[in-house]
Design brief:
7% of the residues lie in helices and 54% in strands. A hairpin with a 2-residue loop joins strand 21 and strand 22. The protein has helices spanning 2-18, 219-225, 320-325; strands spanning 24-39, 62-80, 85-95, 101-114, 117-125, 139-148, 152-160, 185-193, 197-207, 231-243, 246-261, 264-281, 284-293, 297-298, 304-306, 310-312, 332-335, 338-340, 352-363, 366-377, 400-412, 415-426, 432-444. The strands form 3 sheets. It has an 18-stranded antiparallel beta barrel. The protein has a 3-stranded mixed sheet with strand order 16-17-18, with no helix packed on it. It has a two-stranded antiparallel sheet with strand order 14-15. The chain has 3 helices and 23 strands. The protein is globular. By secondary structure, the protein is mainly β.
């Protein structure tokens, strides 16, 4: 019902602005992807379930190849006047075996002036981040306040019906999943400066309630107090500096809280950092980004004393295998299925180092891109202080490596076609390989 109310409110705002302007555009996108995964014999690693998530697990060798066609209709709206600001993009997407889904872009809202602020309803991306990952996105799905000036931007999330901030661009290669039921909400505030030097700071709190397959509420406390007191605080502090053709990024995350999972109360306290740079000369651009997370604090016998950093928002990766097909996250993550922790390759949620590198260039009407993604997990067994570390002995002898390239032809904003090819490799223990090819076209109607 909340999602329906959100869509109806957006449609009302769009209808109002369409009466005075022609700032609405419609589009059509189609895509055909071919995915192949090869899994050979795998050795057992303590604390890991490498075969979990793959079909036909009873086989010693597994080969899976499938085709995923997708067609999507889109509507983009953008209008601003003295009494209203509406902006966003909506998609209706349909796969071969999926029901039609409503998906949103990073922004899809309508807002009205309230004193010196703008009061908005819908989806609004958080701007108080300086992540080096192009794919990073998080924000409010609900009600928000915003105040902008020449110096900076203040954002206040009054009510966020958090569901992982699902994006169309992050769902096109995934199989459709349903959002878990259960009560939850998020609130937050953040500020970022503008200009060549950016400083950003933010704070958010998630009240997970019974959201997710693992979360449970204390029935007695819920009856007496309206909830059992579970919470997850998350804070971020970031810097971004532009200097001629060079740009550097740095961001620090901190989480603290507690949550009842499978009948146990978990203490949460963790950190993560993101570092990166971008270098651009004429039509050439090189970008590197890395995410480093801490670990669970463990005693002897692998007993967890406290859970490490918990991420929120969409997957920040942009390579198809790691971010969408396998859906590997470098740590515990609060998503559309609630809080997820999984020591696997398929839909893995395990602490480690996740890095990406992209090289882009533009020649006339052609855009060419080379990319790579790399993930190394931390050890799942043995004593751990749960701190940030780059020491080799704290990491498994496992890794996933993805490399690929893409070419796109775009003569105007009205239409474009392109293809993307990617290859997945791993260590000998995981014995996992994959190939991916996608062909797509877009047209503005």
């Amino acid at each position: 019902m909340r999602k329906l109310a959100l869509v109806l409110t957006l449609c009302l705002g769009i209808w109002e602005l369409s009466a005075e302007s022609k700032s609405i555009e419609f589009g059509l996108e189609t895509m055909y992807s071919d995915i192949q995964v090869l899994k050979g014999n795998q050795r057992e690693i303590p604390g890991w379930f490498l075969s979990q998530g793959f079909e036909e697990m009873q086989s010693t060798s597994y080969r899976n190849r499938e085709s995923r066609p997708l067609i999507a209709a889109s509507m983009h709206f953008d209008n601003s006047n003295e009494w209203n600001r509406s902006e966003g993009k909506l998609y209706i997407a349909k796969g071969q075996s999926d029901s039609p889904r409503l998906l949103l872009d990073r922004n899809a809202y309508t807002a009205f002036p309230l004193f010196s602020y703008m009061l908005g309803v819908g989806r609004r991306e958080n701007r108080f981040h300086t992540s080096p990952f192009q794919g990073y996105a998080d924000g409010t799905d609900g009600l928000f306040l915003e105040k902008s000036s020449a110096r900076g931007l203040l954002q206040i999330s009054l009510y966020d019906h958090y569901s992982g901030f699902q994006l169309f661009e992050k769902e096109i290669y995934r199989k459709a999943t349903t959002t878990s039921e259960g009560f939850r909400r998020r609130h937050g505030i953040g500020y970022t400066t503008l200009g060549d030097f950016r400083f950003s700071i933010g704070w958010q709190i998630i009240l997970p309630g019974s959201f997710g397959r693992l979360s449970q509420e204390n029935t007695q406390k819920k009856t007496e107090q309206g909830g059992d007191g579970d919470f997850i605080h998350s804070a971020n502090l970031g810097l971004q500096k532009d200097w001629k053709s060079f740009r550097v990024f740095g961001q620090f995350f901190y989480t603290k809280g507690r949550d009842r999972i499978e009948g146990k109360t978990l203490v949460i306290q963790g950190e993560a950092i993101q570092l990166g740079f971008e270098y651009q000369v004429k039509q050439y651009k090189l970008r590197w980004a890395s995410h480093i997370s801490d670990d669970d604090a463990r005693k002897e016998g692998n007993q967890i004393e406290k859970v490490g950093h918990i991420g929120t928002g969409a997957h920040f990766g942009s390579t198809p295998f790691l971010s969408q097909i396998l859906q590997v996250y470098p740590g515990s993550w609060f998503q559309s299925q609630g809080l997820e922790r999984s020591p696997t390759w398929a839909k893995g949620r395990s602490y480690g180092v996740y890095s990406e590198v992209f090289f882009d260039t533009q020649f006339s009407v052609f855009h060419f891109q080379l990319f790579g993604g790399y993930y190394v997990p931390r050890k799942r067994t043995g004593d751990s202080e749960g701190r940030l570390s780059l020491k080799r002995e704290n990491y498994e002898g496992l890794f996933l490596l993805e490399t690929g390239f893409g070419l796109e032809w775009k003569e105007s904003d009205s239409y474009q076609i392109g293809f993307l090819i990617s290859q997945l490799n791993s260590d000998q223990i995981s014995n996992l390989q994959g190939s991916f090819a996608s062909f797509y076209g877009r047209v503005a109607l």
